[in-house]
Amino acid sequence: MRPRVSFGIRVIVLLIVLFAAAALLAPWISPHDPLRQSLLLRLKPPGSATASAGLFPLGTDDLGRDLLSRILYGARASFIVAILSVSVSLVVGTLLGLAAGWFRGWTATLIMRFVDAMLSVPAILLAVLTVAVIGPSFVTLVLVLGLTRWPRYTRVAYAATLQVAGLPFIAAAEMAGADSARILLRHILPNIAGPLLVVATSEFGLMILFEAGLSFLGLGIQPPAPSWGSIMSAGRQYVERAWWLTVFPGLGLFTLVVCVNVMGDWLRDRLDPRSAGR
Amino acid sequence: MTPALAVHDLRLLIGGAAVVDGVGFAVAPGEVMALVGESGCGKSLTAHAIMRLLPDAVRQDRGYVALDGDNLSVLSERQMRLVRGRRMSMIFQEPQAALDPLSTVGAQVAEGTGSPLRQARAAVLAMLDEVGIADPARRIDQYPFELSGGMCQRVMIASALIARPAVLIADEPTTALDVTIQAQILDLLRRLAIERGTAIVLITHDMGVVADIADRVAVMYAGRIAETGDTAAIFARPRHPYTALLLAALPRRTDVPRSRLAVIEGRVPAPSEFPTGCRFAGRCPLADARCRAETPLLREVARGHLSACWHAEAVR
Ligand SMILES: Nc1ncnc2c1ncn2[C@@H]1O[C@H](COP(=O)(O)OP(=O)(O)OP(=O)(O)O)[C@@H](O)[C@H]1O
Ligand code: SF4
Ligand SMILES: [Mg+2]
């Protein structure tokens, strides 16, 4: 029963680990301060070097800041926002789904109707509107993403809880005197964690995209703090003169999101009993 | 002496039909009482009513359960949770499915003690040993998929008994197991009843199992008790036609080989089609007009031996 992991998946996991390491270690591996401006170093192409300031591997932006350092710090912002917002929606969505699946009746009706309503509005539209109204900030960004994206978890947790709650070992736990909280957290949650993990992975990729999108629109991470979305947004007007400002962050975003999604599909195939045994 | 468990005049309704009607019995400490009857006669519902965990569709409108003389119907749900697993436990038919696949044996048995496995480890090891699990120190950290069905049932019994409850309800605990394992588990229950003084209600549809371990029997038919008394007395002389037919269907070692087991003609009526009068009348060889009109109540036909049949004396 040795688990077989294909070469492709190993590469994908390696790439994700590299991105995560870059994000984690940004303060130590960045060649320059991502915020330091220099009028003399504006729009230098990749590979430029000066005697006084050193090498700029990916060039500089319109304010003379080192692009590689900004991309590394941007990865940090992406990961932090994605981890926090996925955590918020995972916790909120799972708790509501557990409650709906366990108590059924009007509790379930109320929660699941609300889920339907939330899912009928595009999440990004909801996020854009909310940020536009209450004003952009890091905390707003995380809360808005987290609190608009929980319904998918609720649906999955609800269906899985209904199914697991009907199994004999849950009846046995009730017979043994366990209360609802104990049954939900000790016995049901571990048994529905697989499908939730799959949703969380695919949501993680989506959150990175949403953060970039909102920052691109000026509704996410606020300049001068670096974010892939805002770097690309600022680089937009120099596309002809300084292609690197849009290409490198775009490439990073594209690669990371594709890797996370492939990873999510792979997890789903491994964890979903319906697609197992292939 | 106060019985460990006493059930009084229990009635359970699904829709308008009384799927359990007027069921009552008492079990003394250390005694094994079998609740026997065909599929669908209300054995499991009776057990769930005793634990006060009935399915949503089922309503109890009469009767009460007393544990060591305490009426459980006055307890709040919160107090009732402290009774379950501590003063009264239940085990089921599919031992493998009754264990959480993602919890170790030790963690599940420890749940009955109310403290985490770290603190309860010694007690859990002792309990696993007591239910006849070889090499408990290794088994304690294994997961259910690593155990056989018989071993899973031993683990269930261990987790049901570790808090020393006065009563154990075993709902067809051996039906899913093969014959040798079945005999071992029955022996174990018998031994635990004697050694620990646990009152055991053993639910089964197999008269052979009853003969093996029960001190007393309550035979149920279509939600009512047809006959109850000491196992020996009932096997020697059944006083209800249904019991007599169940016993006739039992293969006996002393019998000359029969070409075919006797079976009871017909089916148990569905709850919506319960007839007035005796519910067994449709299948009973002795049924007459009175049986179809008037419900026979349990009455004493010999000391400690009750039958709900108008013609109890004519049964042979
Ligand atoms: N959850 C439920 N909802 C509706 N009806 C039920 C439910 N559980 C049991 N019943 C009905 O109640 C009656 C008694 O069921 P019960 O499970 O007590 O029978 P049983 O004697 O345990 O049978 P078996 O030997 O098959 O386990 C049956 O007619 C059954 O269909
Ligand atoms: S009361 Fe009548 S129908 Fe019922 S078991 Fe006795 S003889 Fe048969
Ligand atoms: Mg049953």
Textual characterization of the structure:
The complex is a heterodimer of chains A (278) and B (316). Chain A has 278 residues and is mainly alpha-helical. Chain A has one domain (8-25, 67-275): MetI-like (MetI-like fold), CATH 1.10.3720. Chain A has ten helices and two strands; from the N terminus they run αββααααααααα. A two-stranded antiparallel ribbon of chain A has the order 1-2. In chain A, helix 4 packs antiparallel against helix 5 (138-148) and helix 9 runs antiparallel to helix 10 (244-271). Chain A is elongated and about 75 Å long. By secondary structure, chain B is of the alpha/beta class. Helices cover 31% and strands 23% of the residues of chain B. Chain B has helices at residues 43-51, 77-83, 105-111, 117-130, 136-139, 149-161, 179-196, 207-213, 231-236, 241-248, 289-293; strands spanning 5-14, 17-27, 32-36, 58-67, 70-71, 88-91, 167-171, 199-204, 216-221, 224-230, 299-302, 305-307. Chain B has an eight-stranded mixed β-sheet with strand order 6-7-8-3-9-10-12-11, with helices on both faces. In chain B, strands 2-1-4-5 form a four-stranded antiparallel β-sheet, covered by helices on one side. In chain B, helix 3 (105-111) crosses helix 4 (117-130), helix 3 runs parallel beside helix 6 and helix 6 (149-161) runs parallel beside helix 7 (179-196). Chain B is globular and about 65 Å long. Mean pLDDT of chain B is 92; it is low at 256-261. The A-B interface holds A 167-169, 171-179, 186-187, 190-191 and B 51, 53, 81-86, 89-92, 94, 97-103, 111-112, 156, 159-160. Adenosine-5'-triphosphate binds next to helix 1 of chain B.
